[in-house]
Every structure is written in C-alpha cells, then in structure tokens.
Amino acid sequence: MTLVVFGLGYTAQAFCRRVRDRHPRIVGTVRSPARAASLSGLADAVRLCPDPEGERALEADLADAEAVLVSVPPGPAGDPVLARFADAIAGAPRLRWIGYLSTIGVYGDRGGAWIDEATPPAPVSARSRERAAAEEAWLALGRRADKAVAVFRLAGIYGPGRGPFAKLRAGTARRVVKPGQVFNRIHVEDIATILEASLDRPRAGAIYNGADGEPAPPEDVLAFAAALAGLPVPPAVPFAEADMTPMARSFYGENKRVACPLLATELGVTLRYPGYRESQRPGGDGG
C-alpha cells in the first residue's frame, strides 16, 4: 500500500511513524531541499512542491496510492493541493482513503458551550473560513469521484518538543488569563491513532473532532506543568495587557468546549491522553 502525504509536518510525521510497518511505500511532500534531506529516513520518497519535477513524480505516486493524507493549509486562493492535483487524485484507481486535517476553528466562537461533530460550522476568522471552504472542496471531490474522504477537525496540537515544559525551561511561558476562556488540546500520538482507525474504517463524508475531554483554562495547564517540573509558576498576565501576535490573540476570540463522540462510537478509539494532567505525567511527553 502506497501512502502519499501532502505536507510532512509535525502531525503527519507522527502518523507516518505509526503506520510505517503497514505501508510498503510512503511518499511525502515538503517545500525545501533542506527539509527533504532531513526527512529521508521517514519516507521512501520526498517530493519538492512546488517544483515541476517533484509534481510530475507525484502524479505517478498518486496513480499507485491507496491512501492520501493532506496536512497542507489552504490560503485565500483556496486549497493548493486541490488546485494542482484534484484530477490526479480523483482518477487514482486504487485510492480508498483520503484524510484531510482541519481545525476546530471552523466551529467559531460558542461562548464556552459544548459542541460536537453534529454542530454546524460557523467560522469567524479568515483562516477558519478558508479551512471550512477547503473541507467542503475535499468532501465535494469525494462525492464526485466516489472516494472516501474523511475530515479531521483538530484542537491545539502538542507532544514531544511542543508543550508547556519546553516553554517553562526556555523562560518563554506566559500565563495569559482571560476569565471564562477554555481550550481543548490533542496529543499528536492520539491524532495518529485516530487517523489509523479511520484508515481501517473508511467512511465517505466522515467528519471527526480530535480533542481531549478536558477543556481547560490555559493558565491552569501551565501552572500544573510548572508544579510538576518544580519550576516557578509564571505570573498571571491579563489578556487585555498581554503582548501577543495578532494570530495568538485571535485564538482567544473563540471559546468552546469540544466533544468527540464519534471517536469511540464509530472508530473505537480511546485517547491515551484524555486530559492535560495525563499528558504531563511521566511518559506523557510534556504536554
């Protein structure tokens, strides 16, 4: 089985490591030669995109592919993978599963209320509107080409090298406090588990939320990590006074609690890290 991965980023790499033994051939894409060289041990072939030679090779890879994972974000002009490879993907004769990585941002702001996969999207930010449009474009391709496309709406991703411990040790952690604000999170290994379960149970048009079961104020997560690490708890900074990038500040403009009932009922997945406390215990990779 050939697996083609558009965008060999943090999450896609975890998925490739998880399914390495079951895929005789993994092909991934990156945007720079240096990045390609660093990932040569993870994939059997790493294609440069955009690059004419790499893109021509990808068309041949897709003709042999049985699974495709897309982790490339869309932009104002739409989804770049669809723009270049829609026909090759639609015509791939062996393709039985397409996974598209999206974000819970497509649900918009819910004032802290609970939402699940049945909640209709209501994106607020431009990035989330682009994601929602890309989701529908991929689902439309699936309907048109009779391919099983599954969309995965993911919460904030963390794991080895990405989490509060690293920020605490580097001295860059800040406890930004906005009363009533909560976030869900998802460990990268749990995402890989979800994707593998979907790969084993393809369902056309499926939409799955990927989030832990403990939406929490971000300052609580950071304080818990500091206590475990024996490091000082960073002082609280009111949200209105925090020095943040526009992108970081935009995340605080959306407040919701995310439930993921289909992970258990349809995919049979039990998260290894169902909350931030489990993720920060020994073996939790520092959440």
Question: Which terms would index this structure?
Answer:
287 residues, Rossmann fold, seven-stranded parallel sheet
Structure notes:
The protein is α/β, with parallel strands linked by helices and 287 residues long. It folds into two domains: 2-156 and 186-210, Rossmann fold; 159-184 and 213-279. The chain contains eleven helices and 13 strands. The chain has helices at residues 10-19, 33-38, 52-63, 80-90, 126-145, 164-170, 188-200, 218-229, 246-251, 261-265, 276-279, and strands spanning 2-6, 25-30, 45-48, 65-70, 97-103, 114-115, 149-154, 156-158, 175-177, 185-187, 206-210, 236-238, 257-258. It has a seven-stranded parallel sheet, sandwiched between helices. Strands 6-13 form a two-stranded parallel sheet. The chain has a two-stranded parallel sheet with strand order 8-10. α2 (33-38) links the parallel β2 and β3 (45-48). α1 packs across α7. The longest helix has 20 residues, at 126-145. The chain is globular and about 55 Å long.
Give a brief description.
This protein has 2 domains: 2-156 and 186-210, NAD(P)-binding Rossmann-like Domain (Rossmann fold), CATH 3.40.50.720; 159-184 and 213-279. It is built from 11 helices and 13 strands. It has helices spanning 10-19, 33-38, 52-63, 80-90, 126-145, 164-170, 188-200, 218-229, 246-251, 261-265, 276-279; strands at residues 2-6, 25-30, 45-48, 65-70, 97-103, 114-115, 149-154, 156-158, 175-177, 185-187, 206-210, 236-238, 257-258.
